[in-house]
Amino acid sequence: MRVLIVEDEARLAEDLRRTLVAQNYAVTISSDGEDAWFRGDTEEFDLVILDLGLPRMDGFSVLKRWRAEGRGMPVLILTARDSWREKVDGIDAGADDYLTKPFRMEELIARARALLRRSGGQSSPILANGVIEIDTRLRTVTCLGTPVSVTPLEYRLLTYLMHHPGKVFSPAEISAHIYEEDIDRDSNAVEVVIARLRRKLGAPVIENRRGQGYFIAPEAMR
Ligand code: CA
């Protein structure tokens, strides 16, 4: 899962980055509205955390432009304290949720998790298909009841497929959602990560459809 943080206060942006990286998300930071708009328009993000007061283009305009262009990723806005107007305007502009500054990182994480879950059509923090189970609060993976230790990159790949059960993704599509920056991307590397995960899981959880890509079945056969 890939998250874009749009925040011009460097310290807060860094705190957010550190918190989200510790939760195994791939994180990209943008510190002005124009750069944020461009990235959100041309790259794939599973969630955006958007401050409203930004240099070059304000957060409302960024969000409205994305929505007008059909960019539907979940967006959580950061609003100023006691400003009900900002919340209303933000939601009207297409925000999915908001947090009022200052906020606790724990609350941000819980809201981020809920937004990601809902955008994948899931209601539980536990992603399971009968063979594999991922607890997104604890970031633990078990396969047929046995705990499996995975790297942050492997975790991102696995949760990305599990958030969209049954949907087939090409290596390029997967790659766009698990690396922090464009330059890190290499769809061959996705094949390597999948091979490693398959070995670790020991069960045929990650399936492929020839010439199309990879998927995890909503209900797997034991
Ligand atoms: Ca700001």
Brief summary of the model shown:
The protein has 222 residues and is of the alpha/beta class. The protein has helices at 10-22, 33-42, 59-68, 84-92, 105-119, 152-163, 171-178, 187-201, and strands at residues 2-6, 26-30, 47-51, 75-79, 97-100, 126-128, 132-135, 140-143, 146-148, 206-209, 213-216. The protein contains eight helices and eleven strands.
What are the main properties of this structure?
222 residues, alpha/beta, Arc Repressor Mutant, subunit A, 2 domains, five-stranded parallel beta sheet, binds calcium ion
Describe this structure in words.
This protein is of the alpha/beta class and 222 residues long. The chain folds into two domains: 2-119, Response regulator (Rossmann fold); 126-216, Orthogonal Bundle (Arc Repressor Mutant, subunit A), CATH 1.10.10.10. Helix content is 41%, strand content 21%. It contains eight helices and eleven strands. A hairpin with a 2-residue loop joins strand 8 (140-143) and strand 9 (146-148). The structure holds calcium ion.
* Beta strands, count: 11
Rounded mean pLDDT score: 93
CA-based shape = globular
> What bound compounds does this protein have?
calcium ion
Gross CATH architecture of the largest domain: 3-Layer(aba) Sandwich
Question: Largest sheet, if any?
Answer: 5 strands, parallel
Low-confidence stretches: none
The CATH homologous superfamily of the largest domain is named: Response regulator
